[in-house]
Amino acid sequence: MLTPNLVSRIVETALGEDAPWGDLTVELTTPEAAFVATRLVAREAGVFAGGPLIEETFRQVDPRVTVTELVAEGTPFIAGDVLAQIAGPARGVLTGERVALNFSQRMSGIATLTSHFVAAVAHTGARIADTRKTTPGLRALEKHAVRAGGGSNHRFSLSDAIMVKDNHLAALGADDAASTTAALAGLRERAGHTTAIVVEVDRLEQIEPVLAARPTGILLDNFTTDELRAGVALIGDRAIVEASGGVTIDTVVGIAEAGVDVISVGQLTHGARALDLGLDAA
Length: 282
Fold this sequence. Notes:
Quinolinate_PRibosylTrfase_C; Aldehyde Oxidoreductase, domain 3; six-stranded parallel sheet; TIM Barrel; Nicotinate_pribotase-like_C; transferase; Quinolinate_PRibosylTase_N_sf; four-stranded antiparallel sheet; alpha/beta; glycosyltransferase
């Protein structure tokens, strides 16, 4: 969630990186009294995200800079659309321009890519979710952008839920069906009834021993579409069914049509292209 304190800290870090000792170009070329009016303009179609970061960037650079007519998060747009009006002392606008654009271009790129995945599976009951494959320090922004694009958030951090993978099972000493069930059942007892437990499997024969321990969900990792259908049929309504592993816009429809509940897509955050937005003189 994008809290004001979080946004403030992230913007402060970005500005400290971009202008640690001030903006030398602006200080030597732009009169203090100069005023400029600009527009945030889309150079291509997409879905918008990053408004709070734009506002906070200019607030920190110069509170006299105004951001008005800012479109809402998740707003679709086409090339040429004006997404915000930004006006004020020229020094503040010029100094904050790149940081504000970096945030909005990156976040809008994620929102746009997410919207494509969501639209592709809209005829099914599958939900598109992100992963923890995010830029260190910017996870909250990127997961916010996924929601703006119509997607859902997976766990935010390792502290939020239990996800048991093959290495965890090995650490638990689970090397056959009986020991897998016993290890996961013991984990359920220690975790408590309010904690979600998702277990990753990569073979159909692993499903029944996992289900016997009553997990919240089962993640079918790198299954073919035929294997996904078989896995969904086997699990039924006994657990949430998630699919993951190399999901692309070309494969996501087949995965969704196999009947899974959730499709986690790392590409939403680690593979999104920054959208082309610009700050033009009004």
